[in-house]
Amino acid sequence: MSQLSSACLIAGLAIAGSVVAQTAPNADPYAWLEDVEGARSLDWVRARNARTEAEIASTPDFKALEAQIRAILDSDAKIPGVEKIGDFYYNFWKDAQHARGVWRRTTLEEYRKPEPRWETVLDLDALNAAEGTQWVWHGADCLRPKYQRCLIALSPGGSDADVTREFDLTTKQFVANGFFRPEAKGGLGWIDDNTVYVYTDFGPGSLTASGYPRIVKEWKRGSPLAEAKVVYEGRPEDMYIAASHDPTPGYERDWVARTLAFYNDELYLRRPDGTLAKIDVPNSMQKKPYRQWLFLEPREDWTVGGTTYPAGSLLVARLDDFMAGKREITVLFTPTERTSLAGYAMTKDHLVLNVMEDVKNRLSVLTPGKDGWTRSAFVGAPAIGTVGVSAVDPDESNAVWMTVTDFLTPTTLSLAEIGQAPEVLKSNPAFFDGSKDVIEQHFTTSKDGTRVPYFLVRPKNLAYDGTAPTLLYGYGGFEISMTPAYSGAIGKGWLEKGGVYVLANIRGGGEYGPRWHQAALQANRHKAYEDFAAIADDLVARKITSPQHLGAMGGSNGGLLMGNMLTQYPEKFGAIVVQVPLLDMKRYSHLLAGASWMAEYGNPDTDDWNFIRTFSPYHLFDPAKAYPPTLFLTSTKDDRVHPAHARKMMAKMEAAGKDVRYYENTEGGHGGAADNAQAAHMSALAYTFLWRKLAK
After folding, report:
1. Which of 33, 451, 543, 628 holds its CA 20 to 30 A away from the CA of 301?
2. What is the mean pLDDT of residues 523-534?
3. Which of 138, 590, 670, 681 is catalytic?
């Protein structure tokens, strides 16, 4: 899900929405809970938090698990992921001594050592103490090629809205009177030492209906933000407007992006005179200019020059030729029924292609030459596990970072020079005992006959008597793939206790490319829920578990999935955890960033409501029905998915006397937690609740 908008507009949308709902003919009795920071709302939150803490968090088993997860998150033995910036390798790190984190750097020579020496660049905890703030790190954009100045984004409490401040890597201080963007959803991006692109809240009328920037400007150092020159204005119904400068030596270019909705955008080349030239491809196509190349990923079949390229392909053309009207296109990847494009990474001379085959990664190397692109094997590519690849320094080298992980094998990070065996640099320790478990992949058949995969982690000595406490996790939206990964929290909170963990690869996700996503859009949303329900049935049919021992959990769009499991399939589950969810699908497009998701769900203010109402949990709830025990988890600082979704559903279920509890973290944004202590607390609440309900 995405980012961007001003805090004051967010509050305005929430309050205005409450008024509209309260004065409507069929007024929502819980609309007042949309007032995020209102005294009445927060009193309501505190009362329910206290009850949930008393029920779940006061016991020894909770405290032990919370401490174990906190120790994992704070562990000095975790892999410190790095980003090469100039001559140094930078890492942002949280541990027990650095709750909000420290931005630090080292050399590659040091990084290779078991315990590298790190130089602190910015200590966020010290900054917060000095400024009396609660900043959460949102990243840094450092200006090439000198890498002296950076634009650092900091969020108050973890919300998507943040500020941007200019920072000097030489002095390791914020620049006095440097570039500064006030708190809003948006960003700054370097053009040169004295010029940036700025897209943010410029005042009334400058945001889209989704609460994101509608205008991008060019801003000169030393001038007031109000005098920045307009580069492009989008429309109020657009989703997000931004611009960027590509500083790649020899290929310096400027780009303006107009995002209309998810997977619906226009990309313009900004010429030196300020005029714009659109890349002439369908808006649904993913477009990535890189050096002399233009990479294209069609999301629908695309016919051009007499040739049809299937959805999910990876294509490449020469950028200058394409902009001049030529359509000489090379196919780098074509999907099959079992394969999809997981991603690709460009190094100085090669492209590393990452393909998923039945949700398992396969790597290969493509190299451009005078006779076209040639293909070769990726030396040292693992045969199993989830594999991720990214370039170390695409301007200077052919090296890539390669991460390998699965549910039971601690993650490893390798440095791989194309054509050479990877060098393992770092490995996570074993945070739990996975020796008694085994990983399996299964397929089941959904209601309409579609073959749906899922991963299962179970004890090797599973009894197959239907009594195993089993946790089924899913997402199913926005073309996001769910792949196996090592998690100390899942290991300690579930697997080590003897539980079974299941990861669903339902439609709506990206496991089989665009077609898998598009199969569950809008009026077809029910197919994602039918897939998840089919997996639940398959687990019971295999005698792995039974409904009273089967739990489900998911967040954000996965929280909407959980809401539909709760209201449409309550008999299949013994307990459900609903995290930072969408639930009121009549109001969702009027709350915070909700309007930006209408391409996914539909517009509830039109006839689309006829199908949206069939997957709106807030409206499907029936006080006369029986529901499994439920826990809602959300965050006051979530300015992406409004906490009122969880608040109102909790209130409705509570009024009907259902077995329901609620916890709202005061910080954390859409991620739910602003530091490791909060993350451990939220995880321990979920796993403790589920284990108590399912292991009976």
Report:
1. 451
2. 98
3. 670
